Amino acid sequence: DCNTNVLKCGPPNVNFIGGGGQGATGSSVINAAGNIIGVAINGPGFGFTQPPLLSFVDGCDNGSGAGGYPIIGTVLDPNGNPTTGITNVVITNPGINYLPTTTETDMDGNVTQVIPDPDGNYDGEQNYVTSLDDVVVDNTGFGYDDNDTVTVSGGGTGDGTGDGTGDGTGTGAGGAEVELEITDGLITGANVVNGGFGFTDLPDLTINSDTGLGAKLIPVLKFTKVDDASQLAQISQDAVVTVISCIDK
């Protein structure tokens, strides 16, 4: 009569492998559609000499296909000394069918997304403000004009699109704005002028150009704990994202 089905499946573990450092930890952030939209960095670790490899390990094989790579930068170690740690993760493929870990909740407690297995045990939850942190140029393309712009659209709360200002910027979801760097017809960089907030999905980045072809931009979201978000006073009436951590039962 023993119940052998004792494992309650949770979100995939985030593993950082190699890179010469240690101590880095993160939590996968998965939207209601089952896509991994980013990694909330719980601890950046220290001593990395190069970006480590990244893997998502789903113990119950619910989801598949997600991939990405870490970004390293200067952080402070536990003693307050500068070191090199993981600052964010670029998601190159969000995968499919992962157990959602997010709910979109306003400051009045109204939930608008799915909570993971209601019969499971959870070791806590953390509220985050999501914003567009970076835009990675995956392919420079060619033939672009200095006045070409980028439109940020999709991404959930605060969704919207913009036509750009004619100086290489565009506004979009959650108020995000991005400015392109174009050199000799190649897109060599993209700067986030305004990160916006309230994303529950990876936004779409569309380059507005009559002459350019082939460029590819990858959005990178950042997850700031509400307790640490200095802009909380300005967003108190807007949605935040709640990430629930699951444990075995």
Keywords:
single chain, 249 residues, mainly beta, 4-stranded antiparallel sheet, 15 strands, globular
Overall description:
- The protein is mainly β and 249 residues long.
- It has one helix at 232-235, and strands at residues 13-17, 22-30, 36-46, 53-57, 67-76, 82-93, 102-105, 121-139, 149-153, 169-171, 177-183, 186-194, 204-208, 216-225, 240-247.
- A four-stranded antiparallel β-sheet has the order 7-15-8-14, with no helix packed on it. The chain has a three-stranded antiparallel β-sheet with strand order 10-11-12, with no helix packed on it.
- It is globular.
- It starts with 12 loop residues before the first strand and ends with a strand.
Q: In total, how many beta strands?
A: 15
Strand content: over 45%
The number of helices is: 1
Global outline: globular
Low-pLDDT ranges: 114-122, 157-172
What's the average pLDDT?
79
The main pleated sheet reads as:
4 strands, antiparallel
> How much helicity do the residues have?
under 10%
**Radius of gyration, taken over Cα atoms and rounded to an integer in Å:** 19 Å
Distance between the termini: 18 Å
What order do the helices and strands follow?
EEEEEEEEEEEEEEHE
Structural class: mainly beta
Strand order, main sheet: write it out.
7-15-8-14
